[in-house]
User: Fold these one by one.
Assistant:
Number 1:
Amino acid sequence: MNFHPVRLGIISALREEQTGLIEIMQDVVTTTRGMRDYVSGRLWGIECVCVLSRIGKVAAAATTATLIEKFGVSHILFTGVAGAADSRLRVGDIVVARQLVQHDMNAEPLFPRYEIPLTGLSHFYSDQILSKQLLNAAEEFIRTDFHSAIADYDKQRFRLLQPLVYEGLIASGDEFIAHDEQLRKITDRLQDVLAVEMEGAAVAQVCFEFGIPFAIVRTISDSANEDSPVDFVQFLEKIAAHYAYSIVKRFIALHQSERALT
Ligand code: ADE
């Protein structure tokens, strides 16, 4: 028997990265705090609090701290989009974070490059169990729901063939990466980075500091270079929203069934 009730905080930067979840929540209560709406309720049988952080590390850190301190969440899931930093990745692929780093943190010479001062750490690990569940949820989504969830027209428009799921390093910074040179500055030093975005490592740092398990999933929306999006907003609406909804649904189901066994 598991006696610790779960309250899952679900964060996305933008509305489209969380579409559909709030609409099907039950027993909904919305609380506004620090310019964000925290929507509490039940999703597929578990207590959840959904919130849009807005863009960037400060926005994500403030939202994460509020979810933990004010809303008492026990676990955090972040769902959103990212640019590909590894040339193997294609638009439509999925990355689950194993570790996260802030690529724009540099307090040299006081601390080594990328290290978050006074933590002794530059890379923060996501929770292994949650991340495994998220990885399984993403793989199930691609295997089972992908072909029906995404319209053929949109698959062709965004050239999505058979998306793949990766697990690895995500780098975050307060910068949208839209040029080869910008990306190279990051990957020259952080060679294992799979994807770049603007919030994940801030969520990771706050969760580490509060001892809250977390996991992060990102759909690749662009190649973090000049070719970048065809149409970013359309990608969010037509592709990323479907990914997020189905992956969260499958993640919660897996999380529930594994807890029932413990
Ligand atoms: N989120 C999605 N694409 C991104 C990019 N190219 N840079 C930073 N954040 C992103």
Number 2:
Amino acid sequence: MSNEKALNYVNDVYEIVKERNPNEEEFQQAVKEILDSLVPVFEKEPSYIDHAILERMIEPERIISFRVPWVDDSGKVHVNRGFRVQFNSAIGPYKGGLRFHPSVNASIVKFLGFEQIFKNSLTGQPIGGGKGGSDFEPKGKSDNEIMRFCQSFMSELSKHIGPDTDVPAGDIGVGAREIGYLFGQYKKMRGGYEAGVLTGKKPDFGGSLARTEATGYGTVYFVQEMLKGKQDDLNGKTVVVSGSGNVSTYAIEKATELGATVVACSDSNGYIYDKEGINLDTVKRLKEVERKRIKAYTEEHPNAEYHEGFENIWTIPCDIALPCATQNELNAESAQTLVKNGVKAVAEGANMPSTLDAINVFQTNDVLFGPAKAANAGGVAVSALEMAQNSSRIAWKFEEVDAKLQEIMKDIYNNSVKAAEDYGKPGNLVVGANIAGFLKVANAMVDQGVI
Ligand code: NAP
């Protein structure tokens, strides 16, 4: 098929997405990124068009939306909205995290669920794509309020998930504490011990060692592979990491361990800049134990600077930038500033943190760019390893899981590089990751018939 015909087909599918999902900007953006990458696939293999693979992929298999009522500590009743989007089960049970953040809506869960299909495929593990969450704000809530919310949320969600059907995990606002409460309620609702229904559990009750670290570590392993391709490494590099949550914390830890100096991190209020290198013990205590704002860092480290507003973190000169907070946190202007300041590599720890224009700036300036689907796939990959441990009722050592994670990140990098070369876009890891992820799911869908 000619390039023009393939392009027209992809554009027609994008028009369907816009028409059927009006006002869902994030979902449209995530679909656009994938569709643009797939043009060379349809040129080479037009039979996917006969099977309407794209038209089927852009439509979730199922979307569940539900009421989540809960009572706060003063006795007041609140109502939030819960979601689970079960996007694609061609290669395994739906798998993807739960996000608790006031910004959560249908567009956000659909963009995350759609991306998850391709990311999960890239890991080489047998997991389909899904995502969920609620517009609940966990910040400022007591432990009891979080528990009551999680119990109400799971009372409904438990009807739709299971170790062989749909396996949620954490995401923004959902860490080990929330997973514990969700798991407890699932067990009570279902009356059996199905350890594999959620991943990201504490190791005491079936969690995998190294799952907490996996996304952040995996992102840095991916950077290591990108640098290796240029006969370079992390030693002596200056790194900026946005966010200060789960992904950021362990990206900072691994980058530091590999000889880099991480000079900045942030939260949704602002960022800290510590030229001597971030003290991660302080960040971990402030965020994981005391649940304070990142601003409090400067009280203990007076040489560090605090700046209000998180966007300007990208004005700090660095060799490597790791956006690890949230979607669209890095725009074209920030990308241009990073390029001007000599950035060598960017890897997305967060999901869709760079706008399409920002990605374009990096690619046209020969900055090594690791897209989210590839760079942050380590978390869900280790979640799949947690499922494997749960179903075989054994627990692997930390080093064993970490070694598997490193292998998986290496494979994801190599497969993305190869797919980019095979389809005429050498060096373009966005195209490579999207195509490598797409092919496996598309072939499974063809083999399983029109369902
Ligand atoms: P987390 O532990 O809740 O941390 C999120 C961090 O990002 C916090 O520092 C938060 O600051 C900041 N943040 C959240 N919303 C923001 C906003 N609108 N503007 C600026 N900063 C914001 O979440 P996480 O698990 O690290 O997830 C971070 C990103 O990684 C997300 O895009 C997620 O989808 C992606 N991801 C996570 C995993 C995983 O295994 N956890 C796996 C793959 C991808 P505040 O505390 O001020 O809100």
